[in-house]
Write a structure and sequence with these properties.
single chain, 78 residues, alpha+beta, Alpha-Beta Plaits, two-stranded antiparallel ribbon, 6 strands, 13% helix, globular, disordered N terminus
C-alpha cells in the first residue's frame, strides 16, 4: 500500500447538535471541503482544507472548529 505524507493536515470538528444546516460554511469554503448532507454539514475532502477557518468564522451557530495539526500525518492513497 502506497503512503503519502502531508504536513499540517487540519482537524475539523463539527458539533452536529449545534449545526442547523444553513450551508453558510459550505458556501464560504474556498476549497470545497464541506458538504451539506441531511441538514448537517460533513467533511467531504479534508486533504483540500487549507485551515483558513472561513467556515468557523462564518458559522452563525459556532458549530465548526478548525485546528491545525503540526506533526506529519501519514495518509493512505486510495
Amino acid at each position: 500500500m502506497k503512503m503519502k505524507k502531508k504536513d499540517f493536515l487540519p482537524v475539523i470538528q463539527i458539533n452536529k447538535e449545534w449545526c442547523k444546516g444553513c450551508g453558510i460554511c459550505v458556501e464560504f469554503c474556498p476549497s470545497q471541503v464541506l458538504i451539506l448532507n441531511r441538514q448537517c454539514v460533513e467533511v467531504a475532502n479534508l486533504e483540500a482544507c487549507t485551515a483558513c477557518k472561513l467556515c468557523e468564522i462564518r458559522c452563525p451557530d459556532f458549530a465548526i472548529e478548525v485546528s491545525k495539526v503540526t506533526e506529519k500525518i501519514e495518509l493512505e492513497d486510495n
